[in-house]
């Protein structure tokens, strides 16, 4: 959760260079390969003739521009802080609010239309900041919904990840505006496990949750930010046992400096959400300003090694205070939302 006024964001955005060049469609020129800046000596170089061996315009999957898909109303979710695509019911997405004590996750369509309110039995989070869908710890063949009560601004002695088998929502009406559609979203209660974790190096704030192929949760920390110096602290990746225990640090994550760091200047270059496509061996990280995609060098790679994978910038959309990102399951692409306005932006593959 970030406390930044809309006026401050818009004021800072107005001061940015609207003509700055950015290629964030997944092209090689958008890839992040080094933290070293090079001087622009293009003016001193003669133009090059096109070559049959020239790099393709896009390194597949290619992504188009972000488009507005709809809005999450405050009646659906207040201050959306986590989003994950359903595996059991492709085309639906789970969203959660970071309000203390919220007992539910809401299933919505791509356009933000609510389909079902899912109360997780026993869920009483202090700061739910993340969602993920992945294999269940005791049965990797079954998909589970994970709710990460992992936000920590006070130094909590432990955090909780709630885990519940995904419900079957296939009976949700295909057309929510149809005459026979229900007046209110379906309401269900799910049995859930409350998995408690501590960190090996002490209390840690986080807003991003992944799950590996064995049902073990991975957490990406939210780095500290010094407003006086403008410096962002270190970002770390943790992994814990499937049924609770201790989160162990498995890697550091070096985030590239954002090309247009409007919110990074206010709150730091920090990770606010993550999503993993285990089958395709890809990971998305959301920051306030950008979306980064990590792609494994080969199939079957442990997702916990993603900080060492090649990384590129992909379209982030015009999303104020973005705190969610999730790969789509029923299509090629991903969604990201604004905690501030509830806008849902979708980025689809073009090739």
Cα-to-Cα separation, first versus last residue: 34 Å
Secondary structural class: mainly beta
From N to C, what is the helix and strand string?
HEEEEEEEEEEEEEEEEEHEEEEEEE
Spatial shape:
globular
**Biggest β-sheet: count, sense, barrel?**
8 strands, mixed
As a whole number of angstroms, the C-alpha radius of gyration is 20 Å
Strand content: 35-45%
Low-confidence stretches: 4-23, 27-56
Physical arrangement of strands within the biggest beta sheet? 7-8-9-11-17-16-13-12
Helices, by number, come to 2
The CATH topology of the domain at 73-312 is Hemopexin
Short descriptors:
mainly beta; eight-stranded mixed beta sheet; Hemopexin; 2 helices; 4% helix; 351 residues
